[in-house]
What does this fold into?
Amino acid sequence: MNSESPLSGHISKRFDSELEDIRNRVLEMGGLVETQVNSGLQALLHSDSKLAQQVADGDYKVNAMEVEIDEHCVQILARRQPTAGDLRLIVAILKTITDLERIGDQAEKLGRLEIELTEEGASTSSFVKLEHLGERVAKMLHRSLDAFARMDDKAALKTIKKDFKINEEYDDLSRQLITFMMEDPRTIKNALRVTWCARALERIGDHARNICEYVLYMVHGKDIRHIDYDDLKDQINWDG
Amino acid sequence: MNSESPLSGHISKRFDSELEDIRNRVLEMGGLVETQVNSGLQALLHSDSKLAQQVADGDYKVNAMEVEIDEHCVQILARRQPTAGDLRLIVAILKTITDLERIGDQAEKLGRLEIELTEEGASTSSFVKLEHLGERVAKMLHRSLDAFARMDDKAALKTIKKDFKINEEYDDLSRQLITFMMEDPRTIKNALRVTWCARALERIGDHARNICEYVLYMVHGKDIRHIDYDDLKDQINWDG
It folds into this structure.
């Protein structure tokens, strides 16, 4: 039977559609995680504890998707024994869903912190500080999922760069909150809660960065983690 | 050529030794990470900024090992196309090294925070609060690596249980530190740094828990993440 036979064609097509299915499931999981993050942010900015509770309660769906996609990947590795690009795709998906699951955990944390803040009667002015950082992080997450969907290495690299700005903004915000606490020690508990929210956002940025790194790995077949950003540009010969 | 032929025996033996090699490298990486965590703790408890700097500077070694083992795993998946238990081992290793790398990041954070605390002239009495939590976390990490080395599901399950105590102790310590800050606002900055140290330790506990879950996955072939502890015991029919 040569490689052009209908049967091998059929098998290969089925494999292609399996890979396509699994990629679509990852994008679905990404969409769910994005919704969780955006809802967590909306809940914080509008002191909407009902929405916050929905976010906190909804994390199990993200966890269930991780387990399902993970099992699917292992099945494909066992049955299809992919090599080269297909293998890199599966390995990258195994890693991506771990980061998506952890972004889900951070969204859940935002929900729980909103509920505590509202219970403690914190003024919404303290949440306002989170708005800009939150928007930046949500945009970065969206871009990283978009880079994944389109396997776009340039978009991935551009998105990685955003993480530096997020870290800077997080550091500034932390410093502001410390000053705030020192000026009025009665605010310490709630200012700390706002700090945990900022930290959750900052960590979502880190995970989005990881996802971008897996996109580069898929496209270039190189592990580019732990490499300086400037070296990175040289490594993939991109001047953007 | 039947399955008893010297050649197939030889090939299989080479595969066995490759798997053994990779497992040993994971244990080496685990040993390095353990050293980083213990040194970070020692640096904190003895205000030893020289040691702290070594820890902060040493993280690149952990990162390099992750990349190397990761590439080795992908090569094995491509060349050997393992199935069943061997495949689960490789997938579990791919996940374990991600957690080990992140434990390394937390150890680095301990080193950096110690340096800041010493520069700010923080009294060692604040670090003492971390001693008990640190010992607990270091022991849990050791046990999780031990469970991995011996593929011991019962030890893994026992070790997972330790994470609940660590989370409780972290919560208590956080509350104490908040009280401390409220009583004397001048201590806020350093008390926050001690809080970040406690949080780094708590996260090391989470990663050690993840490693134990991969041991259960390797041994039982089931993904047991996101399952309640009591359900977990039922799932693997263990009454320990």
